[in-house]
Amino acid sequence: MKEKNGTIDNNTLITKEMKKSYDVVVVGSGPAGASAAKTLIGSGLDVVIIEKCSLPRDKMCGGIILPSARKFLSENYDDIPKQLFTEPKEIKGSRYMSTCDPQAQVIDCPGLDLGDTLPNREFGLSIDRVGFDFWLCKESRALMADNCLLIDYKKDGRDISVRVKHDGNYMRIKTKYLIGADGPISRVRRSLFPEFDKTLNWVALYEEHYEGKIDLDPEWMYWIIDPISFGSLIHKGGNIHLNVSNSKEETAINALKRFVSFLKNNHGLKIEKKIMSRGIVMNDMPYRENYLLGKENVLLVGESAGFVRALDGITGALVSGKAAGEAILQSIKSGRPPMEHYSEHELVHSEWAICKKVQPNLANYGFSFGK
After folding, report:
1. Residues 179 and 54 occupy one common structural domain
2. Membrane-spanning regions, if any (predicted)?
3. Residue where a domain terminates, one of 283, 310, 339
4. What's the distance, Cα to Cα, between the start and end of the chain in Å?
5. Three-state SS for 351?
């Protein structure tokens, strides 16, 4: 399969040489970007997903497909390939424990989706996030350009001139529409609203993966509640993944040390080997209902826009990506800016309503970041 000015890997649709113009440039290869691209492909538009890392790229995430995301996927995608599931495949629900509880009781939460109205005992699916995101992108059938970093963009008449660094080479691409699906530290958002990020509060998340044992049922997801922090624990592929947040009073690494001690003393955690450690940051956009959808023909989706459901970013990413793609298609027909259609979209308003439930639910369970 040949592309003008470049070649395409027919198996993955990764292009090694980019054209000078595309109808739509999607920045970010996560679920939000993939969902937007999938919605647009088939309309005749020329769509490319650009990703700053090599594909398939890693993403710090528990990798649990919650019931609401399962529903979206069943309605919009083929079945998830079997090789993408990790053991245990099914997650029955959530349980939580408090570092302040002298008995360290493990208590059931009503359901996995704190902000949704699906049946409480719907189960989640445990997936390999690296392979899952790449599968979503391939399902979109859009071209992908990896090792392609967005530098900046500017208006060029009715179009947008996007400057990227692709495989070490700087170039400009012209596009009619730009979709920012590039996560909580979004370059697209910062270029569009330079002062906005200064208003946000940020929290660091840090996780470690262990070979070892713990006296907790592996088919459940566990939340660790703490007066100044929070954490989560899941079993994945025979290993234990422990994730914690920082706070004004304590670094995430020190919080993790406390949580490890708590789990050793109360739930029999035995670490045989640490096999990975990594960290990310997230902001408080959803907890303050401080969403940004974009402007004119630049749209923000997923975490870039603030769509996170109770510490679950996958569902909001999929939903908002589809809404943005449909907004562009509607704009082409109506002549109105895509931002107008996006801000009016039923999926956007339903997602806002669901996210709005998150803050009180998190606070009710004792999450310090949700207060």
Report:
1. yes
2. none
3. 283
4. 53
5. helix
Count of other CB atoms within 10 angstroms of residue 82: 7
pLDDT of 79-119, one tens digit each? 999 999 999 999 998 899 999 998 889 988 766 665 565 55
- CA dihedral 103→104→110→113, nearest 10 degrees, is 170
β-partners of residue 171 are 164
195 and 332 Cβ atoms separated by less than 8 Å: no
Q: Which structural domain range is residue 345 located in?
A: 2-59+132-199+287-361
CA distance linking residue 331 with residue 176, whole number of Å: 11
Residues in contact with 261: Cβ distance below 8 Å, sequence separation at least 6, in sequence order: none
pLDDT in tens, 160-185: 999 999 999 999 999 999 999 999 99
Shared domain check, 334 and 235: no
Cα(343)–Cα(241) distance, integer angstroms? 38
Which residues lie across from 169 on neighbouring strands? 166
**Residue in the block written with tokens 């392609």:** 148
CA 116 from centroid of its chain's CA atoms: 17
Give the CATH number, domain containing residue 19: 3.50.50.60
- As for how many domains the chain has, the answer is 2
